[in-house]
């Protein structure tokens, strides 16, 4: 509806109505506008619903997975090179639920950027260097077991790390041994490097199994270790520019505007070993040179906000223009994530719990179908539940996780989205073979169809909004609404017992709704199921 502006101080409502009627009288209906009228001083237009129905369904059928991504909204967007750094677990420490958030959020952002035509590089920047490796290297001979390491690498490395950490608090000798091991490692000692490489390799193999379950993949398994030498080059550059100051606690760079050390970052320990921030600077500089990126997005929890502010500030001080193209996407903490055995330690426990609970729910449901691989289906539905629960709110907000709520088959959940997708897919078994995509419009005039089609028209707007804010909640809300509209249409539109023309038109409608629903789910990182 188009409205005339309100009259000024001397204007009257009757004048506005008169002007609206005059304007309406000059307008002519055409193939798109079926009726023109006025109401309360506004000109109203009624769209030709048959044309809307035909155009939307034909457009979805034609575009398929690209529907909504090549409209005028995106015509001005330049195709860019995007780096997304996400997940980034610390070897020997917990691969926990925080890494789940980083993994699924980063995966969504990478999917989104790729969908609109960007060249995307997905980087997993492992915490594979630093003092925890000194502790691990020094402690493995006392607390480690080669057999346990082969049987369950992530858990055993974590157990060793916890034990040696506890021992180091009581025994200063162990702490000194850890520092010595780290110095040997940074000095290139063959034995230390061999042990480190073994720990790193088996950890990556285990991570890859978990990422496969989550549907995530990476183009580059980078890590802090790659930049141990380049971090020294960064320090030399900073020193040559007179930007470094030596203090009792180590070497620092002044980040304050006033030059009074009110804000600073420590870039080297007093014993000469490098720090996390120094290696991050080296990594950023290396990526600027190697990829010449248009944007680089870091996905980590919000506790690292200050770290990234310092990182970007150091890059600017170094004269790196691409510092302005770097962005931190922070996320909040998850509370209450427990398995039936107690507190979650490893991400794998969360995925196993989601699959186990979903299998139980499926077995108890009277509507569940016989499946070739119930465990695989339960896994996909469980992961959808985790993702939707996580993505419903602002990413930066903390939230309390509730298994029962997340795994409900009705309401706004990932299970509901999977259920709707499977239900729409099952309708296609009723489909009669047709050589043409032409269909009978008269069978698609119900209000539920028009409401669904109008919603489908908004898909590109929602994707664009997600691109602007890098927040998946807009897409989650959109897909849940689409699911509810699809279920209303499913209850309203009869397929069985209808004429072949009516059945064909309605099945085409449901097929296109399923396609857009599935496309959106895949962007979120969900693998749609066809049966459940």
From TrEMBL:
Alphabetically sorted, this entry's keywords are:
Aminoacyl-tRNA synthetase, ATP-binding, Ligase, Nucleotide-binding, Protein biosynthesis
Instruction: Name the EC number(s).
Output: 6.1.1.19
Quote the catalytic activity from the record: tRNA(Arg) + L-arginine + ATP = L-arginyl-tRNA(Arg) + AMP + diphosphate
Instruction: Answer whether the UniProt record assigns the keyword Transmembrane to this protein.
Output: no
Q: Where does the DALR anticodon binding domain lie?
A: 417-532
Q: Does the keyword Cell membrane apply?
A: no
Task: List, in alphabetical order, the GO biological process terms annotated in this UniProt record.
Answer: arginyl-tRNA aminoacylation; mitochondrial translation
Under InterPro entries, the record lists: aa-tRNA-synth_I_CS (IPR001412), Arg-tRNA-ligase (IPR001278), Arg-tRNA-synth_N_sf (IPR036695), ArgRS_core (IPR035684), DALR_anticod-bd (IPR008909), Rossmann-like_a/b/a_fold (IPR014729), tRNAsynth_Ia_anticodon-bd (IPR009080)
Going by the record, the broad EC class of this enzyme is ligase
Q: Which CDD domains match?
A: ArgRS_core (cd00671)
Q: Which GO MF terms does the UniProt record name? A: arginine-tRNA ligase activity; ATP binding
Q: Which GO terms describe its cellular component?
A: mitochondrion
Entry's Pfam families? DALR_1 (PF05746), tRNA-synt_1d (PF00750)
Query: Which superkingdom?
Result: Eukaryota
In the record, the note on similarity to other proteins reads: Belongs to the class-I aminoacyl-tRNA synthetase family.
Q: Report the function annotation for this chain.
A: Catalyzes the attachment of arginine to tRNA(Arg) in a two-step reaction: arginine is first activated by ATP to form Arg-AMP and then transferred to the acceptor end of tRNA(Arg).
- Put simply, this protein is called Probable arginine--tRNA ligase, mitochondrial
Supply the source organism for this entry.
Xenopus laevis
């Amino acid at each position: 509806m188009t409205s005339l502006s309100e009259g000024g101080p001397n204007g009257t409502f009757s004048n506005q109505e008169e002007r609206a009627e005059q304007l309406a009288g000059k307008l002519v209906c055409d193939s798109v506008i079926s009726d023109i009228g006025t109401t309360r001083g506004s000109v109203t237009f009624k769209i030709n619903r048959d044309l809307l129905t035909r155009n939307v369904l034909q457009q979805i059928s034609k575009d398929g997975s690209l529907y909504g991504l090549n409209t005028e909204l995106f015509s001005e967007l330049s195709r860019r090179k995007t780096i997304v750094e996400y997940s980034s677990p610390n070897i020997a420490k917990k691969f926990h639920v925080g890494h789940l958030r980083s993994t699924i959020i980063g995966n969504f952002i990478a999917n989104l950027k790729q969908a609109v035509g960007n060249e995307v590089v997905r980087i997993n920047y492992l915490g594979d260097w630093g003092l925890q490796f000194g502790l691990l290297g020094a402690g493995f001979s006392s607390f480690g077991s080669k057999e346990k390491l082969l049987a369950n690498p992530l858990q055993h490395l974590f157990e060793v790390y916890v034990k040696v950490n506890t021992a180091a608090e009581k025994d200063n000798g162990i702490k000194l041994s850890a520092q010595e091991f780290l110095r040997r490692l940074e000095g290139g000692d063959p034995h230390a490097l061999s042990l480190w490489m073994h720990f790193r390799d088996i950890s990556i193999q285990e991570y890859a199994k978990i990422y496969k379950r989550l549907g995530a993949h990476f183009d580059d398994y980078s890590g802090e270790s790659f930049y141990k030498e380049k971090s020294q080059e960064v320090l030399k550059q900073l020193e040559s520019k007179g930007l470094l100051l030596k203090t009792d606690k180590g070497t620092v760079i002044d980040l304050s505007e006033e030059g009074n050390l009110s804000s600073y970052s420590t870039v080297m320990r007093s014993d000469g070993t490098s720090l996390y921030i120094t290696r991050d600077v080296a990594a950023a500089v290396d990526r600027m040179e190697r990829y010449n990126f248009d944007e680089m997005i870091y996905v980590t929890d919000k506790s690292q906000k200050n770290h990234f502010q310092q990182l970007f500030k150091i890059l600017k001080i170094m004269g790196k223009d691409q510092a302005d193209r770097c962005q931190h996407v922070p996320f909040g903490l998850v509370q209450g994530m427990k398995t039936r055995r107690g507190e979650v330690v490893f991400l794998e426990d969360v995925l196993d719990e989601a699959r186990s609970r979903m299998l139980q729910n499926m077995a108890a449901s009277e509507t569940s179908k016989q499946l070739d691989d119930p465990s695989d289906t339960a896994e996909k539905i469980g992961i959808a539940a985790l993702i939707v629960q996580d993505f419903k709110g602002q990413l930066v907000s903390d939230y309390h996780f509730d298994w029962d709520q997340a795994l409900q088959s009705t309401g706004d959940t990932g299970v509901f989205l999977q259920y709707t997708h499977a239900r729409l897919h099952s309708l296609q078994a009723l489909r009669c073979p047709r050589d043409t995509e032409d269909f009978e419009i008269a069978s698609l005039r119900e209000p539920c169809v028009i409401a669904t089609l109008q919603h489908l028209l908004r898909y590109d707007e929602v994707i664009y909004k997600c691109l602007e804010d890098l927040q998946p909640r807009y897409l989650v809300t959109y897909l849940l609404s689409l699911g509810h509209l699809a279920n209303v249409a499913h209850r309203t539109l009869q397929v069985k017992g209808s004429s072949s023309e009516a059945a064909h038109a309605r099945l085409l409608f449901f097929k296109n709704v399923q396609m857009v629903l599935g496309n959106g789910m895949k962007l979120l990182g969900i693998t749609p199921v066809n049966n459940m």
